[in-house]
Every structure is written in C-alpha cells, then in structure tokens.
Write a structure and sequence with these properties.
This protein is mainly α and 535 residues long. It is built from 21 helices and no strands. The chain is globular, with a radius of gyration of 23 Å. The N terminus and C terminus are likely disordered. Its main location: membrane. It is found in: Membrane. Pfam families: SNF. It is a multi-pass membrane protein. Keywords: Membrane, Transmembrane, Transmembrane helix, Transport.
Length: 535
C-alpha cells in the first residue's frame, strides 16, 4: 500500500514520501512520460531524412551509449537522494549542496516552461479529434489550421484570444491539476495505467489500418530503405543522439522525480531497460504508421514521398494528416484514432513534466501535494492561456520549444554529467547504488559513457545549434522576436534557477543519510540498514 499523510509519525515530522504501488506502476508511468508527441511526429521524419533504414544503426548506438546510461544516472540520483531534482542535487552535493541545488531548479524551470506550451498542443489535438468526425478542415487543411482555427497573426504579443484554443486548453489544465492533486499512486500512476493501454491499442489499430492502404508499401520502402552513405555523415549520428536524448524524458528532472517515489529496495536498471526499449519500440511503430499513411497520400497525389511537405512536427500532425484523412476510406475514424492517440500520448508526458515542478515546490515550501499541485497548476494555466491561446500563440510556441529543447535541456544534461561525475565525484557511488539494488549490473564503462561520451556529443550538439541560431536565425522571424521568446526563455531558466535556489527552505533537506551506505565497508550493522530501508 502507498503511504499517506495520515500515517502515524511524531508531531511536526515530515510525512512519509509517497510511493508507487509497485514496479509495474512505475514502469507504466515512466513509459507514459517517455512516449509523447515527439515519438509520433518527430522520429519518423528524422529517420527518413537521415538515412532511412540505415538510421537505425546510429539510433541503436545512441540508445545504448547515451540514452540508457543517462536514464540510469537520473534513476540513481532520484532514488538514492529521495527527492525532486532540487532536493536530490542539494543532497548529492554535500557541502556544495547549495549551488548544486541550482542545477535542480534549472531542470525544474525547464519542465515549467515546457508544460506551458505542451498543454496547448494537447488542446489542439483534442480540437482536431472533434473536427475529425465531420472533416471540418475542408479542402485546405493548412489554411484551416493557421487561419480559421489558430487565427495566426504577425510576430509579437497579442491579447486577442482564440476561443477554439482557449476552451480545450482550460479543460486540459483542469484535468492535469486534478491528476497531480490526487498524488502519485491515485493520480499519476492511475492515469498512466488507464491511458497508456488505450493509447497503445488505438495506435495499433491505426497502424494496422494504414498498412492496408494503397501505397503503404511505397511509404514503408521510403522509410526503411537504407542509405548506407549516410552513416559517414556526422550530422546523421548527431540526429540519432538528439532523437534518443529528447524522447526518453531525461536530464530535466522527470526521471529523477519519478525514481524518488520508488521503494528503497527497488530494482532500477532492469525497469530502465524496459522503459527505454518500450519507448524505442513505440517510435518504430509510429514510423510504420506514419509512413504507411504518407505512402497512401503520395499514391493519391501521384508523387513520391520526397515531394511531400510537412513530414515532421506540427505540420505533419495538423496539416498533412488532416489532408490524408480527407482522402482515405473511413477517414473520420482514422482521424479520430490519430488525434486521440496524439492527445493521450501528450497528456501522459504532460503529467510527468508538471510533477517535476509540483514536487520541487512541495518540498521547498513544505506544503501538501494538493496545495503544490493547485499553486503550480493555476499559475501555469494562467501563463499558458495568456501566451499560447492568442493569435500569436503558434509563433511563440515554436520559438520557445526550439530554444528550450535544443539549448536548455542540452545545457542541463551537460552540466549534470560534468558536475555529478567530475566535480562532485559521485560516479562510483551512483554506480554502486545501481548495482546494490538491481539485477542488471553496470560496469565502470557506465561512468565513462555518462562522464565523457555524453558531454562530448551533447557539447557538439549544443555548439552547432547555437551557431546555427545566431547565424541563420529561425523560421524567418525578426531577430528581436527571437531575442525575446528564444534567448529570453533561456535567460528565464537561469534566473529562475538562481532565485529559487536562494529562497530559504521551510524544512531543511540536509538532515538525510543515503542508503545503502557508501563505501559499503562503512555500514555499521545489517540491522541498522534494514531498519533504514523501511523508512
């Protein structure tokens, strides 16, 4: 049973930490976090543009050398130091905990910003789920999406709200707050246990239907036919590492927070492998479904896949797919399945993003989970509505997403690897923690992958992206707009991390002893260890 605030304890003592009901609940919730919008609208296009079937080789290498190792790092930090990102990093840092705490707040502010706009995409998906039944986008889905639906205006900041976005956006925020307030077991876990199977079943039905469309084979050939020459291109390998990195929900507090709710004696690495390979399997499934459908679209238009526009991101989901749905037999049902899957995948990821912020605030201010969920949810909802439900919402979302994901999260991962492995020198301790509790043991190579290969690859990605954004700009948008919504978002992350780490704790997190003891020779008695593991 999960412990609750009503458990007996000394007056004034903190409530026992919430826990997942078991390993299955944790695994489903972690998979729900990892499987999100990017699996459906990003992976298929990235694979197609970077060597097709040959891309699976660097993709698998990236999964094994960066994705899984950093996922294990997040698990070890959260589980050993028993807290959301700010709490865990403060405890990890020891005497330097005060400045290590700021890294945790940097991750929490990233999650906060992502939550603001991620919710809007889910609202769009819910709208298009309804639109699917009468094909409301008509003959020109592009004009409908940007014009009739979003009413996109010029770059800037507008208070002209779009009702079609505002109403489902508020509904999504209400649902998210309710789930967070219910807690880990009764809220987050229960939502994933219900939603994830529905998502998988709906998407499998969608994929099976897509495979029987005219032209589906040509679409799959376009996706999986290998271009072996692409393996000699460094950018293809960087694209693989980038995809793995962004799709596993690592390095911005999610898996640290989720792992902190596991029981003391919990297998960490084996569930991590299940989560990682389940996420990758869903990406490949999404690739099959998307390109089988694109093959039908190309067949109907008498063109090749290469001649189609909008193969990734927002364009794929809200322009290309509606156009396909309008042309295919049983289109309304197919559209409902696609947009329903998009909304469900987005919602399970959204919950995990918001839990990072809610848990961090709850621990810093020593308040109840309901108060934290309500406070974080209401503030986030207001900002989300003000910025992203207006006529300038699409442009702001696109820019903030680019800078937060491609700069903010990458900076967080680099700092985490360097500070934890090289500055705090915790690589050996975290490796010991993983091996002491898990059936799948990690060797010393794990520390090398996390502390050397990870920062090198991510550092290259970061520098290349910053140079591109400075030299080429983004999307043809005015430099001032990019400075405010792009670089301004990054500045907000750093300022927020510093300010929040300076604020005093209501209850000090420093009275804490990690378990099991490290080095293991320092363990006083097995009886003491057994007593502590139950706490």
């Amino acid at each position: 049973m999960t412990r609750t605030d009503t458990d007996s304890r000394p007056a004034g003592a903190p409530a026992p930490r919430e826990q997942w009901t078991g390993q299955v609940g944790f695994i489903l919730s972690a998979i729900g976090s990892a499987v999100g919008l990017g699996n459906i609208w990003r992976f298929p296009g990235v694979a197609y543009e970077n060597g097709g079937g040959a891309f699976l080789i660097p993709y698998l290498v990236a999964l094994l050398t960066a994705g899984i190792p950093i996922l294990f790092l997040d698990y070890a930090i959260g589980h050993r130091f028993r807290g959301a990102a700010p709490t865990a990093f403060r405890r990890l840092g020891g005497r330097a905990g005060r400045w290590m705490e700021s890294l945790g707040w940097f991750q929490a502010t990233i999650a906060f910003v992502i939550g603001l706009y991620y919710t809007v995409v889910i609202a769009w998906a819910l709208s298009f789920f309804v639109f699917s039944f009468d094909l409301r986008w008509g003959e020109d889905p592009a004009a409908f999406f940007t014009g009739d639906y979003l009413q996109v205006g010029d770059p800037g900041f507008s208070f002209e709200f779009v009702p079609g976005v505002l109403i489902p956006l508020v509904a999504v925020w209400v649902m998210a707050i309710v789930v967070l307030a219910a807690g880990i077991a009764k809220g987050v876990q229960r939502a994933n246990v219900i939603v994830l199977p529905i998502l998988v079943v709906a998407f499998v039905i969608l994929v099976v239907r897509a495979l029987f469309l005219d032209g589906a084979a040509e679409g799959l050939n376009a996706l999986f036919t290998p271009e072996w020459a692409a393996l000699a291109d460094p950018n293809v390998w960087i694209a693989a590492y980038s995809q793995i990195f962004f799709s596993l929900s690592i390095a911005f507090g999610i898996m640290i927070t989720y792992a902190s709710y596991r029981r003391r004696r919990s297998n960490l690495t084996t569930p991590g492998l299940v989560v990682a390979f389940s996420n990758s399997s869903f990406e490949i499934l999404a690739g099959i479904g998307v390109f089988a459908t694109l093959g039908f679209f190309a067949f109907e238009r008498g063109v090749s896949i290469a001649e189609l526009d909008g193969l990734t991101g927002v364009g794929l989901s809200f322009i290309t797919f509606p156009a396909i749905v309008s042309q295919m037999p049983g289109g309304p049902i197919f559209g409902a399945l696609f947009f329903g899957s998009l909304a469900l995948a987005g919602f399970t990821s959204l919950i995990s993003v918001l839990q990072v912020v809610s848990a961090a605030v709850q621990e810093k201010l020593a308040i109840s989970r309901r108060a934290a969920a309500l406070g974080v949810g209401v503030v986030s909802a207001i900002l989300s509505v003000l910025v992203f439900s207006t006529t300038t919402g699409l442009l702001a979302l696109d820019v903030v997403d680019q800078w937060t994901n491609n700069i903010g999260i990458v900076v967080s991962a680099i700092l985490t690897s360097i500070l934890v492995i090289w500055v705090a020198r915790k690589g050996g301790e975290l490796r010991y923690h993983l091996n002491a509790l898990s059936t799948f043991r990690v060797g010393s190579i794990w520390v090398v992958l996390v502390g050397v290969l990870g920062p090198v690859v991510l550092g290259y990605m970061l520098v290349a992206r910053i140079v591109t954004l400075i030299v080429d700009g983004y999307g043809g948008l005015p430099p001032l707009y990019l400075a405010v919504f792009g670089w301004g978002a990054i500045a907000l992350l750093f300022v927020g991390a510093i300010v929040l780490s300076i604020l005093p704790w209501r209850r000090s997190p420093d009275d804490f002893t990690p378990w099991p003891a490290f080095p293991p020779e320092s363990t006083g008695s097995t009886g003491t260890a057994r007593k502590e593991v139950r706490s």
